[in-house]
């Protein structure tokens, strides 16, 4: 269990990177108010991931949980009301961004729960921020953290790449090998 | 070296990127320097000579920093990771314009995104107090 915790410690930060990238790609092609809002959430997700990676812990978990939950509700409402279609927002990228946001929000919720346990039974609990000196030179180098980081990056890339390709911006990015085909069809 | 995750990642990624850059020239003979029709490296990744040179330069920077010291490796990892991510983000907003430089296939995007996240993650998340990190 401890090995799994060490390996997955950086995953919320990596998920925030994935959410930020997908939301920015969605924003690049979205019309109306959805574009600026998605861009703001995307920039916030990327900024939070960088701050959290630098700090080695989940930064401001309560505020992050609120913002993450709000963005999930917003994404759901966007799809449920049909506004997503009117704003040129594809469901696939929104679903991928939501998966990333769920990981971030759930991690923050767990960190807050641990913090509550710590105040009632400090001896039995882990650190309140859920990051027992990860990456700290004084604690030595935990190889499981590095392996977890590489695995997490591969997972995020595996989910984010097709999601990015499904956005209008990704669709306009001309891949190698398809120029001749596209010009023949007049696109 | 074995006690520094930044040096390990910089050295391994650097060596792989240099190797990929050199191997790329084997599949890009006759391909224009910035041609949008490139050769398939390992049957998957599409490259042209400019792409190969970029791989070699990035790989060399990572490899040299990884062999030098933990602080150098940390700085180069974070910088290369951030630049990769930034280029990706800028690319979305340039899509469909004459300035679009995302002439890459999906496996390329996957590899670049995964590399960016690993490099940025290890550069920012490990060895945060570089003064106390052993460089040997």
Summarize the structure.
Chain A is an all-alpha fold and 187 residues long. Chain A has one domain (2-117, 141-184).
Count every helix of chain B, treating DSSP H or I runs of 4 or more residues as helices.
4
Poorly predicted runs of 5 or more residues of chain A: 132-139, 176-187
Question: What number of domains of chain A?
Answer: 1
So how many helices of chain A? Answer: 9
Biggest interface, and residues per chain?
A-B, 47 and 44 residues
H and E string of chain B:
HEEHHH
Helix content of chain B: 55-70%
Chain-averaged pLDDT of chain A:
82
Keywords:
heterodimer, A: 187 residues, mainly alpha, 9 helices, 72% helix, globular, disordered C terminus, B: 136 residues, two-stranded antiparallel sheet, transmembrane helix (chain B)
Please give the structural blueprint:
The complex is a heterodimer of chains A (187) and B (136).
Chain A (H helix, E strand, L loop, with lengths): L1 H6 L3 H19 L4 H22 L5 H20 L2 H4 L4 H30 L22 H23 L2 H5 L6 H6 L3
Helix pairs in contact in A: 2-3, 2-6, 2-7, 4-6, 6-7
Chain B lengths: L4 H22 L12 E3 L3 E3 L1 H20 L1 H25 L11 H20 L11
Helix pairs in contact in B: 1-2, 1-3, 1-4, 2-3, 3-4
Structural account:
The complex is a heterodimer of chains A (187) and B (136). Chain A is mainly α. Chain A has helices spanning 2-7, 11-29, 34-55, 61-80, 83-86, 91-120, 143-165, 168-172, 179-184. Chain A has one domain (2-117, 141-184). Chain A is globular and about 50 Å long. By secondary structure, chain B is mainly alpha-helical. Helix content of chain B is 64%, strand content 4%. Chain B has helices at residues 5-26, 49-68, 70-94, 106-125, and strands at 39-41, 45-47. Chain B has a two-stranded antiparallel sheet. Chain B starts with a helix and ends in an 11-residue tail after the last helix. The relative contact order of chain B is 0.18. The chains are: A mainly alpha (187), B mainly alpha (136). At the A-B interface, helix 2, helix 3, helix 7 and helix 8 of A face helix 1, helix 3 and helix 4 of B.
């Amino acid at each position: 269990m401890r090995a799994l915790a060490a390996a997955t410690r950086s995953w919320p930060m990596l998920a925030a990177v994935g959410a930020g990238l997908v939301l920015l790609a969605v924003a690049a092609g979205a019309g109306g108010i959805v574009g600026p809002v998605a861009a703001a959430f995307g920039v916030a997700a990327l900024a939070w991931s960088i701050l959290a990676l630098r700090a080695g812990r989940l930064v401001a978990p309560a505020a992050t949980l609120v913002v993450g939950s709000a963005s999930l509700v917003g994404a759901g409402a966007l799809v449920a009301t049909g506004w997503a279609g009117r704003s040129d927002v594809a469901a696939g990228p929104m679903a991928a961004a939501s998966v990333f946001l769920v990981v971030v929000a759930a991690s923050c919720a767990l960190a807050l729960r641990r913090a509550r346990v710590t105040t009632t039974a400090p001896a039995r609990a882990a650190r309140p921020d859920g990051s027992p000196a990860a990456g700290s030179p004084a604690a030595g180098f935990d190889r499981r953290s590095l392996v977890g980081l590489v695995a997490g990056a591969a997972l995020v890339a595996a989910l984010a790449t097709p999601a990015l390709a499904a956005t209008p911006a990704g669709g306009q990015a001309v891949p190698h090998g398809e120029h001749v085909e596209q010009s023949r069809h007049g696109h | 070296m074995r006690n520094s995750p930044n040096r390990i990642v910089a050295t391994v990624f650097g060596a792989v990127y240099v190797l990929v850059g050199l191997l790329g020239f084997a599949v890009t003979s006759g391909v224009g320097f910035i041609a949008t029709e490139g050769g398939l490296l390992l049957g998957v990744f599409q490259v042209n000579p400019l792409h190969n040179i970029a791989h070699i330069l990035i790989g060399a920077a990572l490899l040299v920093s990884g062999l030098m010291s933990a602080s150098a490796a940390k700085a180069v990892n974070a910088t290369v990771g951030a630049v990769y991510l930034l280029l990706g983000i800028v690319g979305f907003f340039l899509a469909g314009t004459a300035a679009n430089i995302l002439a890459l296939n999906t496996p390329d995007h996957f590899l670049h995104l995964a590399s960016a996240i690993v490099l940025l993650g290890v550069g920012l998340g490990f060895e945060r107090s570089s003064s106390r990190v052993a460089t040997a």
